[in-house]
Design a protein that fits this description.
Elements (H helix, E strand, L loop, with lengths): L1 H7 L21 E3 L2 H6 L3 H14 L2 E3 L6 H5 L3 H11 L1 H4 L3 E4 L2 H13 L8 E4 H11 L5 E10 L3 H6 L4 H8 L2 E5 L18 H4 L1 H16 L6 E4 L2 H13 L7 E4 H8 L7
Helix pairs in contact: 3-8, 3-14, 8-10, 12-13
């Protein structure tokens, strides 16, 4: 199982003989957990999440390691439990763990409890929850520097499985200068981008066709400037489909944190 995982996730490798926890010291209350997809597929995301969280929360540490979900997806429950025990349990204890990856979010919040039968001593939040909470509590004014028409793509794990659909929409609608339109199929009924469940890694051609079909049928008719989402797999898969359709410069994908940073005056070049 482990060798198969290593082939799929070339950067963050799970090895039964190696503990990533060794030598790591996390002192702050808030811990950003970017996950494999952000770090390997969309590397600018981890930096953006960290910059935004440090504006909203001040002191935030970062821990870059796999959550172990791919082991569960391959049926290796014992391997996932061992990974949690060796690399996650101690370092996450007592922390408020924040991730921008819905797969990590579900793994750390739900699967570790239900599948691994653990009782973790940490709190988990998706970054959309933190953004929504802090923008409201701090009464931060959001004003887009450019008039943009956007739609929101619901990540499957975040919407169907974890029930987070309204917070990102409420946040986007608070931005003056942003015109928001909804896809016909949205929230729990939203269609997949094609990147979930290891699909992109195991069946890249099928994944690409799913993303291209979504853009052609659901997004292009809306005549939007950008797709906003809250998942590194979704961002990567949709961005690759946009390239394939030669739509770069006409349509782009924003992670919601990237959109907020842009609105706050930080141009990250993506």
């Amino acid at each position: 199982m482990t060798s198969t995982y290593n082939q799929l996730f070339g950067i963050f490798l799970i090895s039964k003989n190696f503990s990533i926890f060794s030598g790591v010291e996390i002192l702050r209350e808030y811990l950003l957990f970017p996950g494999c997809a952000a770090t390997s597929l969309v590397p600018h995301l981890a930096d953006m999440w960290l910059r935004l969280l440090r504006r909203l929360l001040d002191k935030v540490d970062i821990y870059e390691v796999c959550c172990g979900l791919p082991l569960l997806l391959m049926g290796d429950v014992d391997g996932a439990a061992e990974w949690f025990d060796e690399n996650l349990r101690q370092i996450l204890e007592g922390k408020i763990v924040i991730t921008g990856c819905p797969s990590c979010y579900r793994m750390l919040k739900q699967h570790i409890v239900e599948k691994l039968e653990e009782n973790p001593k940490y709190e988990v939040k998706h970054i959309v929850e933190v953004i929504h909470e802090k923008i409201l509590s701090k009464n931060i004014g959001l004003h887009s520097r450019a008039k943009l028409k956007v739609t929101y793509h619901d990540p499957c794990e975040l919407s169907r499985h974890m029930g987070i659909t309204e917070l990102p929409r409420e946040t986007i609608r608070k931005i003056s200068g942003i015109s928001y339109v909804e896809m016909d199929q949205n929230r729990e009924r939203a269609t997949c981008c094609g990147g979930g469940g290891l699909m992109r890694l195991l069946y890249p051609r099928v994944s690409q066709e799913i993303a291209i079909t979504k853009i052609r049928r659901e997004i292009l008719p809306l005549n939007v400037d950008a797709i906003v989402t809250a998942c590194p797999f979704c961002e990567y898969t949709l961005a690759e489909a946009i390239k394939s359709l030669n739509l770069e410069g006409k349509l782009r994908v924003f992670d919601i944190a990237e959109l907020i940073l842009y609105v706050l005056g930080e141009d990250n070049g993506h």
